């Protein structure tokens, strides 16, 4: 699964990379479920992108209440197109969730050791995401989930799953709500090449979502 990630990239670089207006963001070192996350989607009925903040943990439109989102932080690539909670969003409401690193935990003795996985050049990237709008009377919540797939060779010793990092060449198709070739969409949901990533151990400071400082991403030395 993917339960924590980072977005430290300056707002101007986000705007340039994704063709959106410069967002009002600050560096995030420990983004956690139920928090607001930075995302890019196509504007409804328009062929232009917009930057939005979405609650992490998808709330299906048919759910009784927002609490349903706590179980929908991730969607499995193998079943995302058919599972009732995600299939409508997969068909019509795909988005990019912005990040520049993510954490996974490796079993170590009686505990778990957190690792930060990021691009070797520390560049910005995008997870494959879905978004949904839930409404009841005077309450409305826009939420999202991150799609996960099997781990690549780099991540496998740490965890057996990893978030789907999309190829930038696929962004336009992924965001196009009218695109309906399910086979091609699911082909995008593959492990990212290990050769472009780096993983290193970090402090257990990151274990608590209350901690959101540069200390979370510092390399842990023996």
3D structure, described in words:
By secondary structure, the chain is mainly β. The protein has one domain: SOS response associated peptidase-like (hypothetical protein yedk fold, Alpha-Beta Complex). It has four helices and twelve strands; from the N terminus they run βαββββαββββββααβ. The strands form two sheets. A five-stranded antiparallel beta sheet has the order 2-1-7-8-12, with no helix packed on it. A five-stranded mixed barrel has the order 3-4-10-9-6. A hairpin with a 2-residue loop joins strand 7 and strand 8. The longest helix has 8 residues. It is globular and about 55 Å long. The mean pLDDT is 94.
Biggest sheet character: 5 strands, antiparallel
Major sheet: arrangement of strands: 2-1-7-8-12
CATH class: Alpha Beta
Shape: globular
Q: H/E order of the elements?
A: EHEEEEHEEEEEEHHE
Overall strand count: 12
- Low-pLDDT stretches are none
Terminal-residue CA separation: 27 Å
SSE diagram, text form:
Elements: E1 5-7, H1 11-18, E2 28-31, E3 36-42, E4 49-56, E5 74-76, H2 87-92, E6 94-99, E7 101-108, E8 111-119, E9 125-136, E10 139-150, E11 161-163, H3 171-175, H4 182-187, E12 197-201
């Amino acid at each position: 699964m993917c339960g924590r990630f980072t977005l430290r990239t300056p707002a101007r670089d986000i705007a340039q990379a994704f063709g959106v207006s410069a967002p009002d963001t600050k560096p995030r070192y420990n983004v956690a479920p139920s928090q607001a996350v930075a995302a890019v989607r196509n504007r409804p009925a328009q062929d232009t992108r917009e930057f939005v903040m979405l609650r992490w943990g998808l709330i299906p439109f048919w759910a009784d209440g927002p609490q349903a989102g706590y179980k929908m932080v991730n969607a499995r690539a193998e079943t995302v197109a058919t599972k009732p909670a995600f299939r409508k969003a997969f068909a019509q409401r795909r988005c990019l969730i912005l990040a520049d690193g993510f954490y996974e935990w490796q079993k170590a003795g009686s505990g778990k050791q957190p690792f930060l996985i990021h691009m070797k050049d520390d560049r910005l990237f995008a997870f494959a995401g879905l978004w949904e709008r839930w409404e009841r009377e005077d309450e409305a919540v826009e939420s999202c989930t991150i799609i996960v797939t099997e781990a690549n060779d780099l991540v496998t010793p740490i965890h057996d799953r990893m978030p789907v990092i999309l190829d930038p060449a696929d962004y336009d198709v992924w965001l196009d709500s009218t695109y309906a070739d399910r086979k091609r969409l699911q082909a995008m949901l593959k492990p990212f090449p290990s050769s472009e990533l780096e993983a290193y151990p970090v402090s257990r400071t990151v274990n608590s979502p209350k901690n959101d400082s540069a200390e979370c991403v510092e390399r842990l030395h023996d």
